[in-house]
Design goal:
Structural class: mainly alpha
Radius of gyration: 10 Å
Shape: globular
Largest sheet: none
CATH superfamily: lambda repressor-like DNA-binding domains
Helix content: 55-70%
């Protein structure tokens, strides 16, 4: 599972930028950029990202497979 890839794919699907995601979940844009380069993100972060994107965490994770 590559959570960074999953987040990038989901953002593209939702036509949302990493900066917009950062603002929506209350993180610094640099943190989101780093998270998108990483293969792992915390469960809490994945929950927040999925919520903002209107997805279930399981749907988000599948995008990184």
């Amino acid at each position: 599972m590559n959570t960074g890839k999953a987040i990038l794919v989901a953002l593209a699907m939702k036509e949302m930028t990493r900066k917009q995601l950062a603002e929506a979940i209350g993180l610094a844009p640099e943190t989101v950029y780093s998270m998108c380069k990483s293969k792992n993100a915390s469960t809490r972060t994945l929950l927040r990202v999925a919520d903002v994107l209107g997805m279930k965490v399981s749907e988000l994770i599948k995008l990184g497979e």
